[in-house]
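YM 10:42: nitric oxide dioxygenase sequence, as discussed on the call
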Amino acid sequence: MDAPTTTSADNGTSGGNGEGGWFTPRRQPEPPVGGEQEPTGGSRLAALRPVGRPATDNGKAAQKRISPVAEADPADAANTEARADTTNASPTDAPGETTTPYQPDPQPLLPEQRSAPSHPASPDAVRVRRTMAEVAPIADKVTSYFYALLFVRHPDLRPLFPAAMDTQRDRLLKALLTAAEHIDNTEVLVAYLQNLGRGHRKYGTRPEHYPAVGECLIGSLSQHASAIWDEETEAAWVRTYTTISQIMIDAAAADELLAPAWWHAEVVSHDLRTPDVAVITVRPDQPYPFLAGQYTSLETPWWPRIWRHYSFASAPRSDGLLSFHVKAVPAGWVSNALVHHARPGDIIRLGPPSGSMTVDHTTDSGLLCLGGGTGIAPIKALVEDVAEHGERRPVEVFYGARTDHDLYDIDTMLRLQQIHPWLAVRPIVDQQAHVQLPDAIREYGPWNEFDAYLSGPPGMIRSGVHTLRDIGIPSERIRHDSVEELVAAVD
Ligand SMILES: NC(=O)C1=CN([C@@H]2O[C@H](COP(=O)(O)OP(=O)(O)OC[C@H]3O[C@@H](n4cnc5c(N)ncnc54)[C@H](O)[C@@H]3O)[C@@H](O)[C@H]2O)C=CC1
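YM 10:58: structure's back
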């Protein structure tokens, strides 16, 4: 990982035709192993058939192999959509936290609710979901076993993961299982997987790693779902995983032609606004294209291979500098390093930009923006973006904080308000308002001509979306980053 590769496709030299799976379905589950014990059983690698595809294919062939059947039901669509933005789910780790095995999201959120046709699920999707239901109560065992298999069979992959694997170690597995569960939901899934594939370039992930991961994924699932595991189930998983991995590989290969796997960036200023919040500005070593409202992944030199997400706090600037608002949270290794240790001259690494909380410049709808705490960062970027486009559409910003003191960027926001007559900024301080941010918007409006943008703690996003729907803003006009990713970002 410290010397990541930029190779992400084999360009067809390995002879795969792209239509088959990488695995020879195996009939017998592996003999049981426990905890840290060394997993046994033969590897399927001998039967693997790496798939080569010209980088320009851009995932279309694999996409075609996804069942044309659309979402099974609205609840599933909700789960998929909620995760569609969980980009860069990765072999990262957050030291000092507890493992969070795969669980269906109990409160799925739809940034853009999609109407879900009521087609039945495909046979593969039914088998995949049956497996997931079977292993759900023992998800932590599935996770442990998966990584034990992976690192024992493929010790060369161990350096791609952080040194401490005791926390959130299942992010890779979770992403794969999420994708598998929603294999029928073509459009959302392909976008999600392409993003995931691109995001994995910075870890040094190569095409030949995917069969290894798939072997171990299926090895762990067959072991823990042995009561229902049969030939058809294994074949369904092989097809599903092959499709998933091919889309990721193709997206990474296509991205390789366009962008580096990561950027180095030098800290050029570090402004401690409160004892816990710093505004950090960096200069990337090469141009870094992004859109206002997006976020990136960031790795510090103090915690190698631990990546965390931060939103850009400004629209793209002519000097190419990027800013982030970072709050040091308890046990947050990355955030504490950035707030308390980073200084000008330090070099960090950035992954690719991600996120769809961007301004639609094809409409002139107003923007209703809710920024809670450091969630004001991308909201400020959106305001700058509207200003740069010379638009005169109304922008209403509600800036929530616990105390006056926590409104660390209010001066900047009020300055913007002074310059731009179309902008209104309303600080909502919990202690004074006696309501939390989302409820404050009920006192204003009407909002039927507005698109809504939410940024802040996961609880605020959840209750904000409910409030906005409650006051009649349709789901497709509500934008925010994935709650799952935000939860993972709190470090
Ligand atoms: N793109 C995004 O969505 C971004 C999200 N963030 C996230 O924002 C959070 C910022 O943390 P802090 O500054 O400590 O914020 P905080 O925890 O102090 O909350 C800020 C404000 O949000 C509102 N709020 C908080 N929890 C709420 C709930 N459950 N229901 C309704 N309203 C609630 C309150 O008005 C509160 O004052 C972090 O979790 C960070 O990861 C930060 C930057 C960008």
